[in-house]
Amino acid sequence: MRKTKLAAIIGLSVCMFVSGCARHGSTGVAATDSITDIASSAQVDAETETETETEAIRECHPYYSNPDDWYDADGNMVMPISLDEEKWQSSPIFEDRCNLCTIPQTIIDKASTEELAKMVIECNMNYLIDLYGDVDEGMNTVYKNFNGIRELLKRNDCGTVVLKLYSEYTIPQKKHFDYSLIDESLSIEESNKQFQEIFSNEEYCRQINEDALVGYNLHVPEWILTRPEVMEQFSEAERESVEDTVKRKYDELNKTEFKDEGNFFMDAMEKEKNQ
After folding, report:
1. How confident is the model at residue 31 (pLDDT cuts 50, 70, 90)?
2. Which of 17, 135, 202, 266 could form a disulfide with 22 if both were Cys (CB 3.0 to 4.6 A apart)?
3. Domain limits at 85?
4. Distance (Å, rounded) from C-alpha 35 to C-alpha 38?
5. Three-state DSSP class for 8?
6. How far apart are CA 216 and CA 171, in angstroms?
7. In degrees rounded to 5, what are phi and psi of residue 178?
8. Domains in the chain: how many in total?
């Protein structure tokens, strides 16, 4: 039960609110809706968008077509939508969100593999991992709807660049949000009221978002590294080095409060060996 509630609270807080957090005075969620009903409804919306085109790739149209939008004040390449929370929150339609994340070809052509990888890891679409409650399902949907990750996987140096970013990422020791604030013994009605109070607190929303980003910095690279086209970029000896790097990251993870995140790469490799 705990995982269901926490996955729902993270997924919703990160990206599913249409009215924003406390700054807008409303979470955009009706007081009578249960947190699990909202999460289920949102997941159905995302699934419906892809069911009719099973395994098909969605060709989206970039909302941010001006190249200047893709650089911050310091000249670093960034996802524009990550700097425009209000626009994201006011765009609840799945197709619109795909367009908001779509990278123009001119930017893809200019982006180094590292710049592209960083944008993929920070992409707002990664909320689908929490929404589905499954890294593989979430990332497969991201793959179908986000051109950035598809382009990244085509790069010949994708594996080495992603592995470098993954190995250099420092996992925070403690979670930002105090999850003990969630009383799981409450009734559905009482839980809804509790979640409403949490979501109306902008600082709580920020903390939950920060915790979600930790997961994305781990799971997105791990998923990429399990892709056959990426593993083929490594020699047999290099693959052993990849596994060693992932194991070290897993050991690092287990010394933090984020140890419940698990390790998608190791689970996938174990599953493959048992097949």
Report:
1. very low
2. 202
3. 2-273
4. 5
5. helix
6. 11
7. -85, 100
8. 1
